[in-house]
Amino acid sequence: MTYFQRNCIAYKTIVLNEVYRTLRLWSQTILPSAITTVLYFLIFGRLMGQRIGSMAGIDYINFIMPGLIMMNMLMAAYNASIFVVYMAKYTRNIEEILVSPMTATSVLLAFLSVGIVRGLIVAIVVALVALGFTHYHINNIILMLFVAILGCAIFSLLAIINALYAKTFDQVSIVPTFVIMPLSYLGGVFYSISILPPFWQKLAFFDPIVYLISTFRYAFYGVGDIHVLGSLLGMLGVFVILFFYTLRLIKNRTGISD
Amino acid sequence: MIAPALEIKNLVKVYKNGVHAVDDISLTVEQGDFFALLGPNGAGKSTTIGIITSLVRKTSGQIKVFGYDLDTQIEEVKTCIGVVPQEFNFAIFNKVEEIVATQAGYYGLPYKVAKHNTEKYLKLLGLWDKRKQMARMLSGGMKRRLMIARALVHEPRLLILDEPTAGVDIEVRRSMWDFLNDLNRQGVSIILTTHYLEEAENLCRNVAIINKGKIVRLAHMNELLKELENEKFILNLVMPYDRDLIINDFPVDKLDDQTFEVMVPKGKNMTDLFAQLAAQHIEVKSLRNKSNRLEELFLDLTGSHKK
Question: How far, in Å, CA of A76 to CA of B155, rounded?
């Protein structure tokens, strides 16, 4: 067997184990997203949405739908990757992986895929829940998938970095509390960036979630707040930087043995 | 020429806090050897094993496993090694068979081979009946055996065990020794660190004693034991002997009327001792070694001997 084949088996071992776990523990991994989405749609979509009318030329309930999918998806991807890495680090069974001949790249791709798969499962569930409240069409399904995977990948990488540096359980929640939450609310899930005051509008342009949500919304309706190609290139750039940074951490055994 | 199972040259590990955990260690473990790595706590044994198994990055030095260089052929090196760490490091909520089969997956074994090997090693280590049990429910001895099964599932040529019998009862320890001896006879090279010096004396052919990150002695076990300056024996007498026992050239300590501790200096033999006892009409009921012989030497070499 070649090294490539062996790495594929090892990669599959990590990813499938985690996918089984996600599905087995669906009430903890998938259900919460479905419940919060129902509440968001009920409160923001139905009750308040009717008063708001439309946003950027789209019915308000339809306007918030891509953002809600993206927000839940990013959280799910983040939670999946941080759980697999931090728990493995905490119980030290990450050593099982590190003593094996798996290359650091395969290990990272596996951890990353765990996040992407969970993110996509949650995205599908949220999208199905949304169908119970509104009808929507998808303008560009390839772009939608691409942005979804890229967003999950970026947040999985952030989760892996957080997990490797975290020394206690409390530190695991740093990124969700101080990065994902504020950036999501500032990221245009519930409004168009164009309605923000100038100062906040400028600030929002430094928020990566703005680009993810805008391009994602563009993929659904063909309208968005910002330049699509520029956003995609920017996000790809962020992904590449984070990927190689995380790879270095794994190779250096940062947060594991040194 | 057959490449050694393990060749370490000038290995150094300096941690970020400045601690020299490993300070210029060089040693060779031949193929088929049963090698002991001894040393007090914090001597650098686990760091050395961590470096060999690539969990810890070395500061400098060279490591070769069956001729493969750790720096340039890391995948080959890792494939050759199976490691049983000192602390439990499996997913405690997973089932026993899942832990072993998953490890096989990490090593890239195809499903059928992984399944076959998992069954083989769980049976060999007496864990087959427990395969569906959650790992955290196992006893301490079973957890150790689980880690051995996991380390062997990809059938490595070199097995490294870091204190494998720590905290297990005597019966389990003995059966583990038998198992390791069998494995060694089948051609698997074994490196073992242990606190139980008796374990090293019984199992290992070669030994390196490490202290403060340096090797203080590297020798064949028999050679090492020959160097002992003296050995202490406990004599149990048939009849109580209420006077002081005096035997020329053999210092004696009286423990009680029927029990005496006799020191046998290097170069002296027991026949002389018994001849003197017979001359004094003293009958000996039984005789046993006072302390582990290796322990004496170990304490001398690591400078921990109080005397």
Answer: 38
B302 residue type, one letter: T
Q: What stretch of H or E contains B284? A: strand B284-289
Question: CB pairs below 8 Å between A and B: how many?
Answer: 81
Among chain A residues, the shortest Cα distance to B151 is held by A96
What domain range is B243 assigned to? 229-301
* B203-255 tens-digit pLDDT: 899 999 898 899 988 989 888 777 766 778 888 888 888 888 888 888 888 88
What residues contact residue B237 under an 8 Å CB cut-off, 6+ apart? B258, B259, B260, B282, B283, B284, B285
Q: Which of B225, B242, B269 is the last residue of a domain?
A: B225
Residue from A142, A129, A151 nearest A36 by CA: A129
The ipTM of this complex is: 0.86
Contact indicator for B52, B81 with CB cutoff of 8 Å? yes
CA distances to A237, A243, A252, B188 from A246, in Å: 14, 5, 10, 36
Is A56 within 8 Å of chain B by CB?
Answer: no
**From CA A149, how far away is CA A74, in angstroms rounded?**
10
| Domain span holding position A52 | 3-251
* Residue B238 belongs to domain with CATH number: 3.30.70.1560
Per-residue pLDDT at B32: 94
CA B1 to chain centroid, in Å, comes to: 28
**B5: closest CA of chain A, how far (Å):** 17
Same domain, B205 and B122: yes
Domain boundary residue among B225, B245, B275?
Answer: B225
Q: Do B55 and A98 touch (CB under 8 A)?
A: yes
Verify whether the Cβ–Cβ distance A100 to B78 is below 8 Å.
yes
Query: In the structure encoding, which two tokens stand for residue A71, read together?
Result: 């927000």
- Which tops the pLDDT comparison, B44 or A136? B44
Question: pLDDT tens, B105-159?
Answer: 999 999 999 999 999 999 999 999 999 999 999 988 899 999 999 999 999 999 9
A24 in contact with B at a CB cutoff of 8 Å? no
- Least Cα distance to B100 among B143, B53, B61 occurs for B143
- Here the tokens at position A236 are 């790809």
Instruction: Give how far A116 is from chain B: nearest CA, Å.
Output: 20
Name residue, tokens 């991807």. Answer: A77
